[in-house]
Design brief:
0% strand; 2 domains; mainly alpha; 69% helix
């Protein structure tokens, strides 16, 4: 990032190679929509590039880039709540959200199907969480950010992050036990 801030525009390519997958995964968990996650990840890099001259390394870069992505996700949810739409492709005939699934050749088809169903249940349960709980849990579990980093990103106390993660796990457990 310091190279980019110093005028080396090609440094953005290195940052994109390094962070694109993690940002897209984070945003997919936040939005539940692959296309939206990809768009928001690209917008994160656009914002990063535009703010390159104002960058000062006062915190970890991961906190900086994830805060941009999280703000874009929040803005997306606000916009989406004001502009509701109905997607024709959002569900299959059983009413289950369509989710990209990883193929695993080491399991039998029955085991792969069972894993796929479990994945869908967890993904659906995660998407049902309130935004602040989903964000905190996702950043902690999947992106391995510390409570302190998440607190800076979310603009709250470390104790609030701890509480959000606890509540998110509790709600996920309740939701998954019902199924």
């Amino acid at each position: 990032m310091l190279r980019l801030a110093d005028g080396d525009d090609l440094a953005l390519n290195h940052l994109m190679d390094r962070w694109e997958r993690r940002l897209t995964s984070f945003l997919l968990r936040m939005t539940g929509e692959h296309d939206t996650a990809v768009d928001l990840a690209q917008e994160t890099f656009v914002r990063l590039y535009k703010a390159r001259s104002r960058y000062s390394p006062s915190a970890k870069f991961s906190t900086y880039i994830f805060s941009i992505a999280a703000n874009l996700a929040r803005n997306h949810f606000r916009w989406k709540s004001r502009h509701p739409t109905v997607s024709l492709d959002a569900e299959n005939s059983d009413g289950i959200p369509l989710v990209g699934e990883a193929r695993d050749t080491t399991h039998t088809p029955a085991a792969a199907m069972e894993m796929s169903e479990k994945y869908r249940e967890v993904f659906t349960a995660l998407q049902s969480l309130p935004h602040d709980l989903k964000e905190a849990l996702s950043l902690f579990v999947y992106d391995e950010l510390s409570y302190t980093e998440i607190a800076k990103l979310a603009g709250c106390s470390v104790k609030a992050v701890e509480t959000r993660i606890y509540r998110a796990r509790h709600l996920l457990k309740e939701t998954l036990q019902k199924n």
